[in-house]
Amino acid sequence: MSADWILSNVSVLAPGDREKHLLKDISLRINSGQIILLLGHNGAGKSTLLETLAGLREPESGSIRLGEEHLWTGKGKKRLNGTVLKRIGIALQQSESQWFASTVREELAFSLRPYQVEGEEAESRMQAAMMSVGLDHAELARDPWTLSGGQQRRLAIACLLACEPDWLLLDEPTAGLDTEGIQRLTGMLSACRASGRGAIVATHDLEALLPLADGLIIVRDGLAFEEAPAEAVHALGSASPQALLAEKLLIGKGMLDAAETACAAEAAGLWQPPEELAKRLAAGLLGNERIAAPKLPIAAAIEEVEQEPQEPLESLYRLDADGSCQASGTVMASDSKKPEDKFDPRALIAAYLILSAGLLSLNSMPKLAIGALIAGACAMPFRRFLIPLLPIIRAFFYFSLVFILIGAVSLQPLELQWSKSEPLAIRMIQLGLIMVIGMPLLALMSPIRLQRGLEQTLGWLTRLKVPIHSLSLLVMLIFRFIPLLMREWGRFAQIVKARGKSTARGNAIPLRLLPYLFIPYIRAILRMAESMADALEARGFGQPAERTTQGFKLIFAPADGWLLLAAIAACAIMLTARMWL
Ligand SMILES: Nc1ncnc2c1ncn2[C@@H]1O[C@H](COP(=O)(O)OP(=O)(O)OP(=O)(O)O)[C@@H](O)[C@H]1O
């Protein structure tokens, strides 16, 4: 029999951004043996909540208990509790890309390993799990990568079921499943509940899962909004699928503007609750008074979610005459308040070069002190981008210190002569300061804007046969791929840790699990490179006769002028210090 989840004031911060809350002060009790749906807009925090329950994200504050057991234990609650981990099984979105073994059987055996289940017991669990998800016994010998997408999703769930956890944590489990697969899934969830186990399921598929649910948790902007009573859920469940079907039917007949509904909502990631559709039906918009929205406690909750002010669609999307949705590139490129859109990359690079030249001109410790003050003042407004890079800065500091100390060693007699290593110390401090002021650039320039900046500035060189498009593309890809590779590593690390029931913190991976991470990781990177190559080809790269398409044009704004003036003033101060000190 599974135990209740008890969450008290749980908050989770974005990795590397301590000002961004992914979950805020969540207090919940989720009773054992229930099927609970997590609902909410795209980006609301459903996956984050599931990952936090699975110990894949460390809460900044608050406590998470499964019955009497704390998920995080030890001094300062910094160590994961392996006993709790073994009582839960999580399937992340796209966790079917996790395969490393050459057969389905080995994959299942890997999932069972932390439970030390082997031999006949393991075999019977594997077969039962395969049967529950509708995979044939013969598939055990197949290479998991040769299964279809839907079959791989079923296998991901079978890997969880074989471990017989008290709680299943499922993220979008119906995605990619056919009708039979969904029926299997709902049957499996009902069977879990009947055996006293529970499930928490993040989903947008209300039609399939709402009729099963014992309760709902609405997540909005990282807040768990409401736990709905089971009666409300079932009453709502009887109304919503019809409303959805009615809407689809009317869109098909051209009686409802698809651009206003599905296209816009899907494109902007807005979730349209069935309640909204039911209200429109009730208002006569769809002409079917059979489906009227019942006024339920949960309806009020969903309504409140919907009343959250949304960014107007037209600021993000342009609806063309043919009803198709287009991302509004110019709006996103110039008017957005995202950090990487604030400055023109050309201004940022020019300011960086000017400041670096100033720092390199300082040739003594007192002058460098002035340079350090100026570099600190420049970096201060962007300190939140520097926090995640502190380990690199610290490593550089220790590395420099060791070199400076070695440089200062005199052997006859054995002593430290500071004067010997002063030039090296000055050089290392200059490099350190240049590195620190350069670090925020990674966050202030998106790769695509950097590419456009290079193309707009150096585009004239193409007449001299200089391959500027290719060079700027290369720079863009380097900028784009480094964070992407790190993110993918984090994603696969999470999956492998969840399967291996690792108690390691953060993205740290125990050595024993590394081989299981490398294969799917490398495969994912290769696939990503292949998709990118296809996309580039579609844009015209690699076909010299074709003109490549360009999404937007950078425009030098007053803020860029001020940035350059500030950099010139700072450089002037450093040059003056060099001459007069
Ligand atoms: N590593 C991260 N760094 C910064 N922000 C993050 C990180 N991971 C998630 N987020 C942000 O946290 C928010 C919640 O994401 P989450 O994946 O939990 O949403 P969701 O409700 O599951 O969405 P969906 O329905 O699209 O799956 C999003 O705004 C996302 O951009």
TrEMBL record:
Residues 7-246 form the ABC transporter domain. The keyword Nucleotide-binding applies. Keywords: ATP-binding, Cell membrane, Membrane, Nucleotide-binding, Translocase, Transmembrane, Transmembrane helix, Transport. Signal peptide: none annotated. It is found in: Cell membrane; Membrane. The chain crosses the membrane at residues 392-412, 424-446, 466-486, 562-580. CDD domains: ABC_cobalt_CbiO_domain1, EcfT. SUPFAM superfamilies: P-loop containing nucleoside triphosphate hydrolases (SSF52540). This is ATP-binding cassette domain-containing protein. It comes from Paenibacillus pinisoli.
